[in-house]
Amino acid sequence: MNLFADRNSRIDTENAFKVGPHIVRTEQQKGPVIKLNLGEPDFSVPKHIKDEIKLQLDLDNTHYCDPKGLLSLRTAISRQINVTRGLKTNPEQVVVFPGGKPPIGLAQQVYCNPGDEVIYPSPGFPIYESFIRYVHAVPVPLHLEESKNFTFSAAELANKITAKTKLIYLNFPSNPTGGVASKTLLEETAKVILERCSPEVRIYSDEIYENIIFDGKLHHSISSVPEMEKRTIIAGGFSKTYAWTGGRIGYAVFPTIEEADVFKRLNINYFSCVPPYNQEAARVALESPLSTVAVKKMVQTFEARRNLIWQQINEIQGISCQRPCGAFYLFPNISGVCENFGLFEKHNRLPEREQSSPANIFQMFALYEHQVAVMDRNSFGQIGADGKHFLRLSIAADQTVLEEGVRRLKNAAEDSSGLDKFLKDRPDLIPD
Ligand SMILES: Cc1ncc(COP(=O)(O)O)c(C=O)c1O
Question: What is the pTM of this model?
Fold first, then answer.
């Protein structure tokens, strides 16, 4: 008899949380690490939001509450979605979750039967792929192409759709690439979906980075395309826009109240409710004009850092990087570095090559030998990722820290003998 049920071998993880122990170990052995691996803004929660949390605690708003989310917050979310997307949702279609993450996997539990196919962007937020086999569904990655600024064409999506397609994830602005979809791409995508998918197929549009967008561009949602409101789940949250990752508040707006109520039932089963004092503060975040000022300041800072770091990273020999239009990540191509190091052949000779990749080796080398933490391509979807050699750098750090991080990456990219030594020692494989 096995201790664990079989399904445990079918769920993956988010490496951004797994790299932590490697960073701790490096810091213990060698000193401070420059952390460009983090997916959270390096800003404080705006003061007016913090004040509201404190006020709500003083009001003893600390008890169980509506498992679907407080009506006051759901009303504010619905209103904001209607204004920004030109829709007519009502608060009963909204469900509040502990973060933007839970509805991703719950959606697969709610909509997919065994054998149903789930299309998702790759590279993409790892949780899309991670859950699919857990629910016995079939992963169908939609590869985002560097040459298309990390978007896809409607024809490529059309090729992935079959009679078994049940759920399609979209994520713009994108984690990890910073790619943003044009209105035209979303209209073409919607046309393919309306032509080829039955009305029961759901589009899960993860728009959690909707407010972090550069170059004066606007955020577009596929839900705004005529007929798509009936098929689209609009997912969002407060972690990124308000630098509030620890507040654990996210939401999804469903095409029907019936669907929202199924998710409410799962909330009851899994966690009862989201802390009401945070929910009232989230309502204030949506309603207060002070939020607009705070968010604008944060986005302008990200944009200035993007300009600077994008230029510096492109100056490193063997690295080329597309200019991201949103979120707070750069996604450089390091094929040239791997080539200069002969890393493709060296990786091929490793006994654990199946569990790693050339970019993963470079990620660990940069961490252990040059004290700079980044993420590798395969942390953002593994299926069909062979031959794709990228890193993700977060620009959620102070400018001087970012510049030091790039300097260390440059040193790593030029340190061929250091890499050979690293491959001999493999400190990343030594158990604690
Ligand atoms: C695309 C995307 N969706 C959802 C989430 C989850 O956000 P939260 O921290 O609110 O659960 C993240 C976090 O990194 C993300 O990048």
Answer: 0.96
